[in-house]
Amino acid sequence: MSLQRVGSLETFVNVPTEGRRSRRGSVSSVAASERARKLTFNPLPESWNPVFDDEEEDHLGQTRGAFEVPQWKRILQVVVMVIFCLFAAGVVFGYAALKPVLKKEGAYQDICNGGDTCVEIHLNLMFTVAAVATNVAALPVGAILDHYGPRVCGIIGAVFLSIGALLMSFAKNLPFDAFLLGYLFLALGGPFTYISSFQLSNAFPRHSGLILALLTGAFDASSALFLVYRIIYAKSEGSFGHHKFFLAYLAVPVAILIFQLTLLPKQSYKTVGEMIEEIEAPVFTDASTAADVVNVDDQVDEQTALLREEQREHYESVVHDIEELLGSSRADKDKQAQREEAKNERSGVWGVMHNHTAWEQIRSPWFVLICLFTVVQMTRINYFVATIRPQYEAIFGDAAKAIEINNFFDLALPLGGIISIPFIGVILDHTSTIAVLTTLVTVATTIGILGVLPYVWAAYANIVLFVLYRPFYYTAVSDYSAKVFGFRTFGKVYGTIICLSGLLNFSQSGLDFLFHKTFKGNPVPVNLLLLVLGLVIGICLVGYVGLKTRRLNSKREASGYVSGRGEY
């Protein structure tokens, strides 16, 4: 399970020390630390971006200052999007709770003629395709969001969710595999809803971390939707079948569509960096007026004077609104910058690949090792979600005990993501990257060992560790990508990691075949294979990063590195 998890939509990034041309048209020196103006998830080259004239204020790809929107409306927008993420962002990852219901409802019985293994493989393939689509969809979602804004993304998401719900509802009456296609469209609707909501953290810059935490928590909790449905299904003794449930679920995309067209923003909100840049822009944006100022023309007519005064008043009003929105003094901003610099230095790897092109970054061991590790861990995570019940049925030889463990997992999965949110940021901000990677490899290995032990306590310990590890892992990968590769190429590099990992998740079908056919229902060999692969790649990753970190620190100390600023 994966979508981008971000702690902040802005950070300080290293830039080359040579001068660059400012917005005023003059060459200026660049500080070694500069705030990134915008975190983009667009994997396409920047040259693909259309150029907008400043006058095109209503263009979908443009951004809008939060101070231009009433506070009550921004609050309502955040609340509504958190609710929508709760019901739409990651519902397909509640598959473990939905699968027993679909089996009882007779899914794939017409194809499998009552064969349980055949049904199991078909349902698992349905989930595998959905998991792959969720990750791969992040790439086009980023491009669409950057160029057409959150409203278009939200509408597309609502359409996909509607198609998915209808296909799932009428799947047994359609002449093709509507379960697979329906679940695929539900999966595609999630990223369009979730990723397009990130920009709302800029609606309240002082509380951006809280808003992102709420959205991430809603994404994790959305997997509980099918758990709630399974309980209702059991209470109704099967009368509230999947046909009725998915028809009722159509209310969600309909509500998303209505609110997208009425309340929710058409354009993304500006980041703090973009608003600061707006403050630093020249007061006189009109070329002729600016030329008059430069030439210091003594013959200033009344119209020109009034124009200058009007522009100055507008500029001062915008500056006041932005400062009121940010609500922090210069001293507070300096402290924030110092904290950010200290965190970057503590990571040990900050800026190591920032000044390289995306292609150079992708060819480096920094990328290859984290990508391989992500492929294995994502496959393990999604494979466990898809096969938890048959795995424990085989390990314990007791279907009732396996159902009990599965029920615990269905509840723990969303709760684990929510509980871990406050601690993940603290760990990532206060520990080095090598310590984070070592923790990931250690915990992943422990989960692998617990997953093959035939003890009830080991099963529950495995689930507890798994549900806490999953959100920590995905957040750590995005954190690693930002620190090592930088935000200038974040969309391309991180998007490539997630896309490749998602595509290679199709190997789950092969693992399913090994589990059910080759090893005749014994999950231990497959789990050991994944354990060994993850451990070997993890050791290589930790070893490489540790070696490079020591060399980098030695080089910085020898060159007189200035703390956290990337200066030598």
Helix-strand layout with pairing:
Elements: E1 12-14, E2 20-21, E3 27-28, E4 33-35, E5 63-64, H1 71-88, H2 95-104, H3 109-112, H4 116-136, H5 138-169, H6 178-194, H7 208-221, H8 225-235, H9 242-249, H10 251-262, E6 268-269, H11 272-280, H12 287-295, H13 302-326, H14 330-347, H15 358-363, H16 365-396, H17 399-430, H18 433-450, H19 456-485, H20 490-503, H21 507-518, H22 524-559
Parallel strand pairs: 5-6
Antiparallel strand pairs: 1-4, 2-3
Helix pairs in contact: 1-6, 1-7, 1-10, 2-8, 4-6, 4-16, 4-20, 4-21, 5-6, 5-9, 5-10, 7-17, 11-13, 16-17, 16-19, 16-20, 16-21, 16-22, 17-19, 18-19, 18-22
Task: Throw out a few tags for this protein.
single chain, 6 strands, two-stranded antiparallel ribbon, 568 residues, 22 helices, disordered C terminus, mainly alpha, 68% helix
